[in-house]
Amino acid sequence: MTCSQIAEQRNQLTPATTPKTTAVHVSVEHLSKNFGATAVLKDVTFSVAPGEIFVLMGPSGSGKSVLLKHMVGLELPTAGRVALDGHDAAAATTRERVRMALVFQSGALFNSLSVYDNLALYPREHRLFNEAGIREKVMRTLQILSLENAVDKFPSELSGGMKKRVAIARALVMEPSLMLYDEPTSELDPVMAATISEIIATLREEYHVTTVIVSHDRELALGIADRVGILMGGTLAMLGPAMALRSPQDPRVADFMNPKINLQHPRFKQLET
Amino acid sequence: MKPLTAFLDGFGSTWLLLVRVVSHSGSLPRQFHRFIDQCYLIGYTTMPIVAILSFFIGSVLALQAGYSMQNFGTQQFIGSLVGLSMARELGPVMVAILVAGRVGSAITAELASMKVYQEIDALETMNISPARILVMPRLAATLVMMPVLTIIGDLVGWFGGAIVADLTEIISIEPEAYFAVLRRYTHFSDVLNGLIKAELFGFAVVLVCCNIGLNTRGGPREIGAAVTRAVVVSLILILVLDYFVTQVLMLVSS
Amino acid sequence: MNHVSQTARVGLFFLLGLALTWVTFQTLNGGKVFRDKGYRLVAGFESLRELKKGDEVRMAGVVIGSVEETRLAGRRAEAVLHIDRTIEIKRDATASIVMAGLIGTNYIGIDLGSAGAPPLPAGAEIRTQITPDLNTIMTDLAALGNKLDHALVTLTGSLAGDGKGSVGIIQKIDLLVTENRASLARTTTNLQQVTDKLNRGEGTLGKLINDPKLYDEMIGTLGEIRRGAGEAKSFIANAQAIIDQVKMGQGALGALVFDQKAGEDFKSTIANFRAVSDKISRGEGTLGKLLQDDGLLRDAQLIMKKAQRALDGLEDSGPITAVGVVARGLF
């Protein structure tokens, strides 16, 4: 299914409703985070404009996921802060002001609930609609992501790609103004990865939602990102439009983006010297 | 130093969890289905093992008491001994220990796995408090089910004692005589005393088990460690709490 | 399993718990909360002994309430009794503390009172009566034995003074009888004869002859004493058996009932009592001499009255006499 088909289908399903979410402005200000003696983030500063797709890249262990958790207040900064429309993400009240959804790398679906109940949890708990309204909303969202057949399944019965899509669907039901994705395309085959990328881009088109993606999928970054930040060793090594990735200035970034497999001088041997 | 800070950490976070649960207690009616689910797990499915255990506790109590009381020819007072011991002490403590082992461990395992697999984090980003939808229904169900389990345990224990007192040769107390003495020396206030204790034990155990589950860090391996810790902490807590609660109840009732 | 059946099971389970609690409550407390519309009476005692809160209040053996509170009020101890609303207690009913067992269970026993008397209002004070407990009975018995012993010594002394002494009672009687009728001088030891003669007698014996009522009373009292002695004998036999039992027990129950010293006391009391009763049984022949001495007569009357009262006391405490208490505790 292509992006346009999805958009078309969605328009057919919801002719009357227009996106009501107002995209949020994210601003990371001098953020530092230590775990014990280890500094994971060192004075990171950048901002994401409303409605923008921002892709945060970097090698494993560079602190990308930690930075993402700061944006939803799951981690508390050692210094600095993350502001969402000016509200500190670490404050408990911010979650009530800014509706945000995080798609976890693992999906983090509720294993004890069926797919339907996973999606219905948020509107039920926050009493957004009555049960009929919730059913309509959930079914529509599942259709957008071609998950109608999975509605009564449990997460353990789903494949990796389906789990990711259910996780996205669950985030989508929340009608967030900030969507965060943690490695949405990892562990997926290239076609499924491309599909997910298309879905993310389409959702931004439809909902005008601010999107932050943590990934090291180059295709995704080059394909849908407005801007890209590259995190290395706890600091931003590069920050700029996606096009800049094609000709990086920093040799480390260049190596990260286009690693050459060199059997004569393997990297792990260079590290030893 | 590390065990001490860990202890203080756990102590503090348990109280904070309690505060959060209480602050959400208004939404309990909306958690009715979860509450019923938990009642079913904590009460209904735990009842058979409570009955079996209490029966044998009452039996062995009568047997041991009969063995030592025959030295003085005071076997006819076995009913009062079994009645009071079951109602005031063994009933509530045994039920609490069973709940710790059967329910508390399951709660910790479930919440720890939810934590490890980021389900708890997901709830938090969805602005749904885990204290509200996970902890509160369990605590409320515990409060409702503990007295039910305890009264069943008490009664089954009494009957176990009666049967053993009747059938054991060295005791040979007719059930009528056994229950006459039991009724004469056991007052409902003793039973009530036990129900209050059970209520407190159950509440403390479930709260602590929830807290340990929610504060699990690391990978799946930590789930097992968390369950072990939860059961150990629960057992210690029950017995320590037992001493102090008994003291307080004696002060209050005298 | 669907939600409905699960909810139903949980609901039924909870109802089962409630029902069991209710049954337990009814069985153990007899549903007292809902009959709490009873009223209160105050009973004052010199000592509440081992009475404690929660003990039963019984009327003619039927439980009609409980001891709600025990307290000290000035120079006495008070028990507040909670009486069932449906029970009427007559104004002349008497409350006493009754021992129901050896290991310290007491209850308050209230007698029925007279049928015509008006009922006691709530909050009123009920008449109380002190029933002797085991220790008091022992002490009283010892004192009684001593007094009887002493009286007998005096009596024997008077008789022994006979023979050559000028103050001997028999000599006096001798003289008296000789003055009136010589044939009576040789029959001084025969009481029947003496009294026969005394019917017509004069002088110091006139008192008895002039007052036949006093004489009847004396005879009656003697009968009482003899009966009392008989009863005391059987009591002693019982008590002896109990003491033997207790001594054999030697352990917890022995210590509960009396210590070694109390046992000894009890024994010597019994010995005294037996000597006294033996002497009284043989006392008929000396009656004339007894009657001749006014002072002796009064002494004997006093002692007999005391003995009678003591025996009455023993009889009146009904099934819970000392023997009853001990026997019930043991057997």
Overall description:
The complex is a heterotrimer of chains A (273), B (254) and C (331). Chain A has 273 residues and is α/β, with parallel strands linked by helices. Chain A is built from ten helices and ten strands. Chain A has one domain: 3-Layer(aba) Sandwich (Rossmann fold). Chain A has a six-stranded mixed beta sheet with strand order 6-7-8-3-9-10, with helices on both faces. A four-stranded antiparallel beta sheet of chain A has the order 2-1-4-5, with helices on one face. Chain A starts with a helix and ends with a helix. By secondary structure, chain B is mainly α. In chain B, helix 1 packs across helix 6, helix 3 runs parallel beside helix 6 and helix 4 packs antiparallel against helix 6. The longest helix of chain B has 39 residues. Chain B is elongated, with a radius of gyration of 21 Å. In chain C, 56% of the residues lie in helices and 14% in strands. Chain C has a seven-stranded mixed β-barrel with strand order 1-4-3-2-6-5-7. In chain C, helix 2 packs across helix 8, helix 6 runs antiparallel to helix 8 and helix 6 crosses helix 10. Classes of the chains: A alpha/beta (273), B mainly alpha (254), C alpha/beta (331). Chains in contact: A-B, B-C. Chains B and C meet through helix 2, helix 6 and helix 8 of B and helix 1 of C.
